[in-house]
Amino acid sequence: MTINDKIKNEIVTLLKKQKVNIKIEDLETPPSAEMGDWALPCFNLAKEYKRAPQEIAKDFAQNLKPGGLIINFKNIGPYLNFVIDSSQVAEMVLKEIGKSKSKYGQNKIGKKAKVMIEYSQPNTHKEFHIGHLRNVCIGSALINIYKNCGYKVISANYPADSGAHVAKTLWYLQNYTNQNDIPTLPEDRGEFLGQTYARAVAELSDHPEFKPQVQEIMLKLEAGDKELTKLWQETRQWSLDQFEKIYQELGVDFDVWFFESIEEKEGKKMLPKLLKYNFIKKSDGAVIVDLDKYNLGVLVLLRQDGTVLYGLKDLSLAFKKFKKYRINKSLYVVDTRQSQYFKQIFKTLELLGFKKEMIHVPYEFVELKSGIISSRTGNIVTYEEVREAALAKVIKETKERHSDWPDEKINEVSLKIVLAALKFGMLKSGNDKVITFDINEALDFNGFTGPYLQYTLARLNSIFRKAGEIKTKAKVDYKNLAAPIEIQLLKDLSEYPDNVLECLKLNDPSLLAQYLFKLAQDFNAFYHELPVLKAKLDVQLARLELLKAIRQVLGNGLELLGLPILEEM
Predict the structure, then answer these.
(1) How far apart, in whole angstroms, are the C-alpha atoms of residue 218 and residue 223?
(2) pTM to 2 decimals?
(3) Would you say 414 and 398 are in contact if contact means Cβ atoms under 8 Å apart?
(4) Potential cystine with 167: which of 217, 250, 294, 481 (Cβ 3.0-4.6 Å)?
């Protein structure tokens, strides 16, 4: 039970003594602190009491007696508002954080249920562009949040290592690249493959008569042609090496790797069983799932030429996930353009009798100021390009601020700043919002950014370094935390566990990113408004206790989002 739940339970208990039956879900947060801390809308009580809601609220405010945490009542129209003793709340919140430390905000709602979170899923033979980063950041943050909430989590990656894009790349390599030149290709062969794919798309657009050659490559690959398979395996590894390097830098890893090339074969094996169902049938040489009666159209599993499509692979993979890994729930972090597709997949599985908990976590795509990212047209900015440009900028600025730091420290700190900028830039907007990414905005130390949060935490650390060890036997008097900004910060801290739960409920880590930014803003307002080290000793002790809790919660939240923490900047 969170601290806010305890407070609301006390309100509910008080009202029950007056024979007013409400639930904690009925309580709301007033729009401003001046109105009170919690509010009860009295609309639902009007029928029971046969009176207007504003009269009921007014009557309660005049006749209820304060007690415990509740020190006053306010009647504002049809709302009964409750004023809570901030010193008692301060003691509850700060002691809980001090006791729990890194475990503050954790809960056991998952009860050790096992969930698989599939995310990233980049295409081999294409470049890892900045748009792919959003998927990685959402997926890895959700893994941390689910673990924080008591779930056993299996992280899974499902790269698309087969299909038309692979065939196009191999076709171009065979026809427009001297195979003897491969040993002398540039070191970043993943980038080379991405450029090759874009050239292949352009060439096929100009010469559509070559498309049957690509189709033939797809068929040969599925049939196991030795020469093509060797080239595919070699080039596929180039992409996987690039992905692994990026994942390592981002601090993410995967418990399980699935590959489309394998699920393609598994899907074909299960096809005869699928065709026994009357809603899965052959149509003009293709195999389709007829979902028209559910307003979901038609899902094609197998093309007329016998090549496998995504649907057949995903049906096979769904069975494998639940049977082999004994999971209770499966999350698919895939962009919103695939929403209709996942409705078709989940409905097909349901009709097959496979009624498991499967959730599509959609997110909008990332744009650049120059327009939409597209691997087909080559209009992309790779992760490496953004990282290198940002790192050069931050290293230069860090050297100017800390000329006494050794190069190793400058480089280490600068990289962590860049990673925080990139990750937070992908997490700060709701999953349903399109991101127009700009690295200069993401690096702004005064903006809605990861470096701003890092800087706030570094500022807190600086205060404690200056404070040193305060030797006193005096107890903290929580009544000294009575300024409006201090009360707001206490409220912020009490809301952290609820915020994490809401992220879990909605599968949206942006709520935590926005919470941490507000906490940092409120702390910085406090920092400029009230003294800490120059305050009287009793006030100083209370404020340091408050700042210690802020530092802990800010650090906890950054770790859940996967942002690097810096002691100093």
Answers:
(1) 9
(2) 0.93
(3) yes
(4) 217
Q: Around 61, how many Cα atoms within 13 Å sit in the side-chain half-sphere?
A: 23
Give CA–CA dist 519/493, Å, rounded. Answer: 8
Domains and CATH numbers, the chain: 3-84 (3.30.1360.70), 119-260+313-368 (3.40.50.620), 387-431+442-561 (1.10.730.10)
| Helices of type H across 71-163 | 86-100, 130-148
DSSP-assigned states of every residue in 363-421: ---EEETTEE-BTTTTB--BHHHHHHHHHHHHHHHHHHH-TTS-HHHHHHHHHHHHHHH
Q: Which amino acid is at 567?
A: E
Q: Count CA atoms within 13 Å of residue 227 on its CB side.
A: 7
Query: Is there a contact between 299 and 289 (Cβ–Cβ < 8 Å)?
Result: yes
CB atoms within 10 A of CB 508: 22
From the CB of residue 101, how many other CB atoms can be counted at a distance below 10 Å? 12
User: What would the pLDDT profile of 185-231 be if each residue is shown by its tens digit?
Assistant: 667 788 888 889 989 999 999 999 999 999 999 999 988 999 999 99
Rounded CA-CA distance 429/513 in Å is 8
- For 393-409, write each residue's pLDDT tens digit: 999 999 999 999 999 99
